[in-house]
Amino acid sequence: MEAEDALNSGIITCWQSPSNIALVKYWGKKGNQIPANASLSITLSVAYTLTRIKASKAPSGKGPAVIFRFEGVLNETFGVRIESFIKSVLPHFTFPKDIIFDIESGNNFPHSAGIASSASAMSALALCLCSLENKLAGIDGISESFLQKASFISRIGSGSACRSVFGGISVWGKHPAIDGSDDEFAVPLPFELHPLFAGIRDTILIVDPGQKRVSSSVGHNLMKGHAYAAARFSQATTNLTAMLLALKQGDWETFSLITENEALSLHAMMMTSRPGYLLMHSNSLKIIDKVAEFRKQTGSAVCYTLDAGPNVHILYPESDSDKIKPLIEELKEYCHQGTAIEDKMGSGPEKLNCR
Description:
alpha+beta; Ribosomal Protein S5, domain 2; Alpha-Beta Plaits; 2 domains; eight-stranded mixed sheet; four-stranded antiparallel sheet; 14 strands; about 25% strand; globular
């Protein structure tokens, strides 16, 4: 009865959840958002989605229903998709079906531009839903089981979103070197990072702020029957094992080698798919060449990665920030209107007080 009374007046929950950048990529999936290989990512800090949900009781048989606004504008098309998602995950929640979800969401970075907007958006939505369930049950606090469930729900909406639930570095997918790793949810890195990686920076160079030419869903499906699929999945598993050791030992050379190898492998899979797609722009390639040249000339700890798009992430230790500044300024020449987002590894999502 208390839950019903609360819904009559409306329950509000609000979360800010960051994007993440995968270092070891997952590309290809099976079943209900199950990865073909385990992946590892850095959770960012500055690039995030903020989502607010007001849940109210709907007339009997009229729920769940969704009203969705993106950056202040009613978006009925995406609202239908969110409503479908909520209906699909409803069996995993204890709250009643007849609820109207009034959802407001917005990013502080370009949507669908290769900065994993689905990761931040779906993780923020999942965290709000899990908080709503807790409020209706009279449960306070953020427990380990709460985060695991939020990661599980996030994954159903967007695979990479399950990693954004945790700060620092997280792993999604079963891997023999990570106890407790699972295909259905992500887990935080189970050991302390070497100090070299503790404050890693990520400058995101916006080569093209427009939408990606190919959605991630389409890209993943192209791995089915791909001539190099089995080799790619094996490569990712080997790379993840080596990456874990590099993160423990402070081995930037191996970290850099694997990170760049993974980025290029991802784009190689897309180029050799049927049909094939070239997602990098000419300026993306110029940036890659400049980073390699700078590293060779200066010996600086710097490397690059990309998601399935043209924008380039430049990674470097916080301690080398001053050394890398001249490179970043030079690379802005190849960005859309000189746009670069200064980001870094973050502590994960944040529950906000909002009305």
